Amino acid sequence: MAELPDEFPLPGLPEQVQIYEVGPRDGLQAEKEIVDTRTKIEFIRGLRQTGLTAIEATSFVSPRWVPQLADAAEVLAGIGSADGIRHPVLVPNQIGMDRALAAGATEIAIFVSATERFAHENLDTTVDGAIELAAPVVRQAAEAGIGVRGYVSMCFGDPWEGRVPIGQVLDVVRRLADLGCRTISLGDTIGVATPGHVQALLEAIGGTGIGMDRLALHFHDTYGQALANVLSGLRCGVTEYDASAGGIGGCPFARSATGNLATEDLVWMLNGLGIEHGIDLDRLVQLSGWMAGKLGRPSPSRVVTALYQEAAADQLF
Amino acid sequence: MAELPDEFPLPGLPEQVQIYEVGPRDGLQAEKEIVDTRTKIEFIRGLRQTGLTAIEATSFVSPRWVPQLADAAEVLAGIGSADGIRHPVLVPNQIGMDRALAAGATEIAIFVSATERFAHENLDTTVDGAIELAAPVVRQAAEAGIGVRGYVSMCFGDPWEGRVPIGQVLDVVRRLADLGCRTISLGDTIGVATPGHVQALLEAIGGTGIGMDRLALHFHDTYGQALANVLSGLRCGVTEYDASAGGIGGCPFARSATGNLATEDLVWMLNGLGIEHGIDLDRLVQLSGWMAGKLGRPSPSRVVTALYQEAAADQLF
């Protein structure tokens, strides 16, 4: 099957995209199973070997909130650095920032919410409060020459509030852009986006003068819509997409266990569209199959399900 | 979650589509579990109550080939007819046609292959041979005023031949159109299509003068691409889509157990796009959850996975 899919470009789509791998952070933080530090390091080193160049490594959120990633400093020390590969880490506040810097982080990501209710439930603050919490961290990073990514949760729907008005998302995105976030990742935290909604939001953001080159799209596949939504994002000119190797992870507030868009499913579509991404799909499938074994459950990725079972017995990793 | 997804139409898409339900036939014929006749009848009656208007009921293929559907005549007798609902049945040849007519079929579907190797492996004939086998059946149906749908397998890739040239598909589609098939369903039997490939094939078919209103698209979700491919089909103006309730079934020749596009996942996207289809998603999810229980395994549909587990305990069916 290595010669498939056929390559059929669609006119008007980008020639190249950046895949931003969130498996080690967004994936593992939402898995019930707590993975040991050594396995995390092997996983991240394996991801590097697939050609991925942006791999979010861990989170310096309080271990009381996210015990899955309590070993953030050890993971960062264990993976070291690799030429041409970025390893951003998530930081929630000043304490997290201090820990991240002490651990040698060279790029960070902060997170805020587009809805009041999720800001309250997940961050114990308000929409404004979350942005105010992030502001000094972003400024400090800028002074240290450290790139900052800003995540916005609940950009399409909220499990409590339902519909999320586009104007509300726009306001938060604009504030993160003004703060100096290099990239702003629009999160469909509960997976309810559909392709027209994606286009409407992107057009509205574009209308404020924020370029598509400053945006990333972060889809969850809860209702199977993630790839159709990526296609919509590609048509609008967005060139950065978050995905999780093997589809690991999810949102504890979403209704189902199906979480992040699987990197493999995204790579398959990009291969078909002839869009460059630099990733070796076969290696990635092998790695995700191995990781699914560590997590003790089948991978939710369709591509991993289809290809791993027939893969060569000798592991690449 | 009933108020989600938000409705955001995309300019240029059809306002309404026909969903052609293939679960009772294409789904059940590929399941290992042989479902009893009573359950099949309950399933089809349940599907009718969801608002579906085209439900392929069974297949008059030889029971030696497809033991799962050996009870075709009993199923057709058991479901009877219902106002405004079509129940096509699959017929492979003259013997199947005679059995179908004797059982009271009022609409049929025939099938051919776009590739020589699949024609050989699945039908024990050639591409030409399959069309010659179908020709008298189609003519007989036309004389009896019975509508005929033509399925073309392996329109995008073939597990043995790999890439399938568009010209090869075009030739088969044209011959089915000339024979008098009312609708021609383009099958991605092994799930390897991607959105650019879909557009390229549809544009090529359109170039021969065959209208998009004579086409249906039949995607498998083996690599997670089915909905992105539907989106591509919608942009090209195709208004009929095959799907299987709960995503049951698959192709025994494909690499994985993930088979047909789940009707629920399709309905979710159409709801978001504001495209009319007439189906009650909640009822369908309940029915598919019930059917997954009968099949003894979880539904591969993302929407069923997400919504069934929290559904009201009292069954609608």
From TrEMBL, chains A, B:
It comes from the Bacteria. CDD domains: DRE_TIM_HMGL. GO terms for molecular function: hydroxymethylglutaryl-CoA lyase activity; metal ion binding. Keywords: Lyase, Metal-binding. The keyword Secreted does not apply. InterPro entries: Aldolase_TIM, HMGL, PYR_CT. One of its GO terms (biological process) is L-leucine catabolic process. The keyword Metal-binding applies. Residues 17-285 form the Pyruvate carboxyltransferase domain. Belongs to the HMG-CoA lyase family. NCBIfam families: PRK05692.1. PANTHER family: HYDROXYMETHYLGLUTARYL-COA LYASE. This is Hydroxymethylglutaryl-CoA lyase.
